C-alpha cells in the first residue's frame, strides 16, 4: 500500500468538508416558481429516470434535490424586507398567491327566520337606534380631567385657578374673571391694588353667610325649629301593617310548634320511665301476693295483673291484707 502524502490527505479532507457544507448558490436549467406567502417552491426541471432507480443512489438523489430547492426558497425569503423582533430577525411575507383547499367544507348559509322573511317581503330595513349625541364640551372636559390626573400622578401642579384653564382664545367673561383672580391673589385679597381709570369694582362671586340676630323677635327662629321637627318626623319610617301582622303570625306559629314539641317530648319521657319500672324488682307490685294482714276482702274488682305493657307486675289491689315483708322475697 502506497503511503499518502500530507497534501493528498488535506485535499481529501477539504473535499469532504465541501460536500457537507455546500454553497448557497444552486444552478438550475429552469428557474423555480415561488409562492413566498405559502412558502412554496415549484421545480419544473426534468428528472433523470436512471437517478430514480432503487437503492442508495435514489435516496441520495432525492435528498440532494430537496436540499437544493430548499436553499433556493430560503434565498428568496432573504430578499424580502426584514425587521428585528425581540432580538430575532423576521422577514415580512407577502400575501399568498396560490389558493389552497380548505380542510373542511365551507359552512352552509343559515336559513332566514320568519321575521327576516317577513321583513324582506315588506321591505323593512333594520335601523340602529341610538340616544347618544356628540358633546364637544364633554370631550374637552374629559381631556382636561385626563391631563389633570396625569399631572397629579407625576406630582406636577396644574396651572390655572378659579376654574380657569389656559386657552388660545378667551371670551370676555373669562378675561374678566382672570383679572379678578389675579387681583385677589395677594395677601390683602386685592384691597390695595390700583384700579384702572373707569374700571368697575369686581363683583364677588362667592356667597356671603347670613346670621340671625342674637336679640329681638324669636318668632322666626321658633318657626324654623318647628319646621325642622316636622321634617325630622316626616323622615321616620312608616309602619307596614301587613308586614307587622305577618311577622306576628309567624312568631305565634313558631311558639305553638315549640310547645307541641315540648309536650310530645314529655309524653315520651313518661312512657320510658314507666317501662323502666316494669323491668325492676318484681316484688314491688300490688297484685297477686298483696299485703296480708290488711283488709281481708280487699277489692274484688281490683286489677289482678297491673298495667300491661311493662308496668309493675302485680299492680292490682286484689288479695289479702298487710303482710310483713315484701312479696317475692320469701
TrEMBL record:
Residues 183-219, 248-330 are annotated as: Disordered. It holds the Pfam family RRS1. Keywords: Nucleus, Ribosome biogenesis. Residues 192-202 have a biased composition (Basic and acidic residues). One of its GO terms (cellular component) is nucleus. It is found in: Nucleus. Residues 285-319 have a biased composition (Gly residues). InterPro entries: Ribosom_reg. Signal peptide: none annotated. The keyword Glycosyltransferase does not apply. GO terms for biological process: ribosome biogenesis. Coiled coil: none annotated. Its main location: nucleus. Residues 260-271, 320-330 have a biased composition (Basic residues). Involved in ribosomal large subunit assembly. Belongs to the RRS1 family. This is Ribosome biogenesis regulatory protein. The lineage of its organism: Eukaryota, Metazoa, Chordata, Craniata, Vertebrata. The gene is rrs1.
